[in-house]
Amino acid sequence: MSTTVLVRLAVRGVDEVDTDDAVSGVLGELALLPAEDVSRPTGGDAPEGTRSGELVAVGGVLLTLAGNPEVVTTVLSGLWGWLDRRGRGRIEVTIGGDQLVLDSSTPAERAQIIGAYVDRVLRR
Fold this sequence. Notes:
The protein is an alpha+beta fold. The protein has helices spanning 16-30, 54-58, 69-86, 107-122; strands spanning 4-12, 37-39, 60-66, 90-95, 98-102. β4 and β5 form a beta hairpin. The protein has a five-stranded antiparallel sheet. It contains four helices and five strands.
């Protein structure tokens, strides 16, 4: 039995329209990945670990993943691939208060960064 990990994902675009398009693209990408639940916050209180209004400013997605390293690694790698295809921007992922910023890097650097992050947040 695995634990559930809540991931706060912030997508930064160049303006409000670009951010909204980026979040829509991430939602489409997540539909192809092993996320158990994906939602887009709409008003109300900001999720735990965020500041009020922060998700509106950068676009937000909350996802629930099985808390095993393989699933989290697959989702993070998929998101980084989407970011590459988009050609710009960055994604911030927060699991349990520990943040990872996805932006440009080589495939080898990505594997190392994702591996270290997954080890840090799931294998404590």
